[in-house]
Amino acid sequence: RHGLSHHALALLRAACPDEKFRDGAEAQKHAQAAFDAGEGPRHIALSVLAAAAAQAGDFNRAVLHQTQSLQEAPPESKPLIRERLELFQRGEPYRRKAGWWRMH
Fold first, then answer.
1. Which of 58, 5, 75 is nearest to 36 (CA)?
2. Of 10, 51, 52, 104, whose CB is crowded by the most CB atoms within 10 A?
3. Is the dihedral of CA 62, 2, 39, 15 positive or negative?
4. Mean pLDDT of the chain
């Protein structure tokens, strides 16, 4: 289940609210590994690829991946995916909220 580990690392490197953990190249490497592993829903893997691309400054690729994610997502996921797509279209990266890793 290495794909899920790569998924978590990709999100950390792409969207962590703490700048010291963000690294676009590392985010893209882990996002691609997670996508290639094929674990979990494909629309989520595409959205992680989009976040990683945005962190690396490749907003065209981010929009492409997020658009694919939107097309493949179930209806209940579309509002959040659309929200992130709008971020990428404005040239803004996605950021998780502080404390997102805590379990409540």
1. 5
2. 52
3. negative
4. 91
As a whole number of angstroms, the distance between CA 99 and CA 50 comes to: 22
pLDDT digits (tens, 9 = 90+) for 52-89: 999 999 999 999 999 999 999 999 999 999 999 999 99
Place of tokens 């595409």: 46
For every residue of the chain, DSSP letters joined together read -HHHHHHHHHHHHHH-SSGGG--HHHHHHHHHHHHHHT-S-HHHHHHHHHHHHHHTT-HHHHHHHHHHHHHHS-GGGHHHHHHHHHHHHTT----PPTTTT---
Distance CA(13)–CA(8), nearest Å, equals 9
Q: What is the pTM of this model?
A: 0.91
> Which residue type, as a one-letter code, is found at position 50?
A
CA distances (Å), 90 to each of 63, 76, 87, 93, in order? 10, 24, 5, 9
